[in-house]
Amino acid sequence: MIKLLIKWLLSATALMAVAYLYSGVEVAGFGAALWAALIIGLLNALVRPLLVVLTLPITLLTLGLFLFIVNAAVFDLASGLSDGFHVRSFGAALIGSLLYSGAGMIIDSALEGLSPGRR
User: How buried is 91 (Cβ within 10 angstroms: 0-12 exposed, 13-18 middle, 19+ buried)?
Assistant: First the structure.
């Protein structure tokens, strides 16, 4: 449970960093980043798998590159559902989702050592 809370806080911090580094993504404050990170996490857990299955034929035709579009759509949808988190365009959502995903991979790697029983 602690690991999940740490990941949520770090994901919100990553979202703030994305907004700082890229002008196409705007976050009003850390509270808005917390809500947006929660919404992105829920959408990634609930909606993204459905989108991946529905777009499987085009994903196969594009050798997996269409998953970038799916990630951008989820990122853009999260901005529409969250106050204080705004993405200017779909292109901005694509770049923002790439930056946020990269930060997420770094966070996951850093938190991997916190799992019990791992060395």
Answer: exposed
